[in-house]
Design brief:
Strand content: 15-25%
Helix content: 25-40%
Strand order of the largest sheet: 1-2
Shape: globular
Order of helices and strands: HEEEE
Number of strands: 4
Length: 67
């Protein structure tokens, strides 16, 4: 996900970087990509996350989780 979702802490859809120049585009991209990643069981790389750089997404109580 590169800088779109730099760490697993940024998984919540409304959590967008404060310095994002195009936050509405980022929001739409997250809404589109995260469900696809979950449904297609993508191996996700969070480039800036030192604790969990690679994982698959799961859903728990309607919320996306890394793991």
């Amino acid at each position: 996900f590169s800088d779109l979702i730099p760490t697993t802490a940024h998984l919540p859809i409304p959590w967008i970087m404060g310095y994002d120049l195009f936050p509405l585009e980022t929001l739409e991209n997250k809404k589109r990509l995260l469900p696809q990643a979950l449904n297609e069981n993508w191996l996700c790389w969070f480039y800036h996350d030192f604790e969990m750089p690679l994982c698959r997404l799961t859903e728990e109580n309607g919320k996306l989780k890394a793991g």
